[in-house]
Amino acid sequence: MTISRNARLILAALLGVGLAFIYVPLTVVVINSFNSSRTFSWPPSELTTKWWAKAIENTGVREALKWSILAGLSATAIALLLGTALAFAVSRYDFFGREVISLLVVLPISLPGVVTGIALNNAFTKQLGMSTGLLTVVIGHATFCIVVVYNNAVARLRRMGTSLQEASMDLGANGITTFRLITLPNMASALFAGGLLAFGLSFDEIVVTTFTAGPGIQTLPIWIYNNLFRPNQAPIVNVVAATLVFLSIVPIYLSQRLSSDSSTGGRF
Amino acid sequence: MLQEISNTMHKKPKLRLVALLTAPILWLVVAYLGALATLLVAAFFTIDSFTGNVIQTFNLGNFHDMFTDAAYKNVVLRTVGIALLVTVVCTVLAIPMAFYMAKIAKPRSQKILVALILTPLWASYLVKIYAWRTMLEPGNGVLDWLLGPLGFSSPGFGGPAIIIGLSYLWLPYMILPIYAGLERLPNNLLDASGDLGAHNWHTFRRIVLPLIFPSLVAGSMFTFSLSLGDYITATIIGGKLQMLGNVVYQNFSINLPFAATIATIPVTIMAIYLWMVRRTGALASL
C-alpha cells in the first residue's frame, strides 16, 4: 500500500474522533445511572448504586419490560413465519409480480414511522373498529420485522442452492422429511440472525408503537418517553437507559459467535 | 396423512406456491398497503370544524391549505435541509473511519472495529437521544463541562442539536455500507494509482470516491430517509423547532385528513429520491 505515514496517522486520529463521538454519550449514560444527585448535575459529586436497587423494584419498569418482551416475541414469531415463506416463494419459484416483493417488504421500514403509525391507527380504530392493545402493537411490529427475516432467509437460500434438497429427495425422503432434516438445519443460523434482528427492531420501536398501543400498554421505549420529562423519575430513567446500553452488547456477541454470512445482521 | 399432503404438495408446485404466498401477501398487501391507501384517500377529506368528524367528500382543500400557507413551506424546507445536512455530516465522518477500518487496520482489529460500530445500532434509539439531552443541556451539560475550558459552549437545544442527534443516530448506517464498498475495492488499484504518481488525495478523489459512490448512495438512503420522517428527536432536543413529523403528529388527533395530507410530503420526497437514485444506477451495482 502506498498510503504515507502521515496519512495513516491522520486517518487513525479521525477514526478515534469518530469513535469518541459514538461512545462518549453512551458512557455518560452509564455513569449517570450511578449519579447520586436526584436532579441532573454533571459531573456527579458522588456515585451510588441506590437508583439501581430502586429501578429493579419499580413496577412501571417491570410491567413495561413484560409488554416489550411479549410484543417482541410475538412479532418475531409472525415475522419468522411470513418472512421465511415469502423467501422460499421468491427464491424457489417464478411467478407474476416476483420483482415487486422485495420492494413491498422493505416499504414498512423505508416509509417514515409516523406515516405507517397513523395509517395503521386509522385502519384499526376508524375503519375496523378495533380497540388498540397488544394485538395491534404486534401486527404493527410484525409488519416492519418481516423484511429482516426475509433478507436473511433469501440470502441463505441463494447460497444453499437446491442440490442438497434434490439429493435428499433422490434418496427417497419426502418433502416434509427433507425440509426437517436438510433445509431447516441449513437455514437455522440465518433464521436465528433474522429473528434476533426482528426482536431488536421491535424491542426498540417507539413511533409505530405510539400509534398502535393505546393507553393500556406501555412498552419499555414508551415508558422511557413518558418519563423522560418528569424530573423526579430521572434517576430511574438513567438506570433503564444504562441497562439498555449494556444489553446492546448481547446481540453483537451472539452474532460474532455465529460469525455467519451476516456480520452486519443482514441490514445491508 | 402427512405423507399424503406431502405427496400432493410435491406433485403440484402451484399449490405449494399458493400455500407459501397467501399469508404474507394478505398481510402486506391487504393489511399494510390497504391501511396506507385508506390514509391517502383520507388526505382528500375534510373535517367538520364544529364536531371534528371526518366529512367524506372528495376535495383538494387540504392540499390547497398546505401549499399556500408559508408556515408549512418553511417546515418542509427546514426538514429537507436538516436531512441533507445530516447526510453530509455522516458522510464526512464515515469515509475516513471506514477507510481506516477497511484498508489500514489489521484483520484482528478490523473485526473489533466492526463490532464497535455495530454495537450502538443495538442500543436504544431513545437512550441515544436522551444521552444527547444530557450532553447538550445548556449550562450544566456534559459538552459545556468538556469543551468549556477550551472556550466552546453547547449549542443548546434547537436546529444544530437536531443535526447532531440525528447524525449520531444514523452514523453507523453510513459507515457500514462504505466499509463494505471499500473492502471490495482491490488494493492494487490504489497501488497502481500511487505508482503512476498520484498523491493520496488525488487517488482518493479520482479512484476511491467514484468506486464507492454506490455505497455512499446506499448509506444516504438510511441517513436521509430516517431523518426526513423523524419527530422524536426534534421533540427531545429540538427546543421549539418543528420538523414535518411533528406537524403530522400534532394534526393526527385533531385533524386526521390534514395529517394525512402532510404525510404525503415525506413519502413523495422519498419516492423522488429513490427515483433519482435509480437513475444514477447506484442500486444496480450494489
TrEMBL record, chain A:
InterPro entries: Bact_Polyamine_Transport (IPR051789), MetI-like (IPR000515), MetI-like_sf (IPR035906). Belongs to the binding-protein-dependent transport system permease family. CysTW subfamily. GO terms for cellular component: plasma membrane. The chain crosses the membrane at residues 9-34, 67-88, 100-120, 132-150, 190-214, 234-254. It is a multi-pass membrane protein. GO terms for biological process: transmembrane transport. This is Unannotated protein. CDD domains: TM_PBP2. Residues 65-255 form the ABC transmembrane type-1 domain. The keyword Cell inner membrane does not apply. PANTHER family: PUTRESCINE TRANSPORT SYSTEM PERMEASE PROTEIN POTI. Keywords: Cell membrane, Membrane, Transmembrane, Transmembrane helix, Transport. It comes from freshwater metagenome. The keyword Nucleotide-binding does not apply. It is found in: Cell membrane.
UniProtKB/TrEMBL annotation, chain B:
Keywords: Cell membrane, Membrane, Transmembrane, Transmembrane helix, Transport. The chain crosses the membrane at residues 21-47, 75-100, 112-132, 152-171, 207-232, 252-276. It is a multi-pass membrane protein. Its main location: membrane. GO terms for biological process: transmembrane transport. Residues 76-277 form the ABC transmembrane type-1 domain. GO terms for cellular component: plasma membrane. It is found in: Cell membrane. Belongs to the binding-protein-dependent transport system permease family. CysTW subfamily. This is Unannotated protein. It comes from freshwater metagenome.
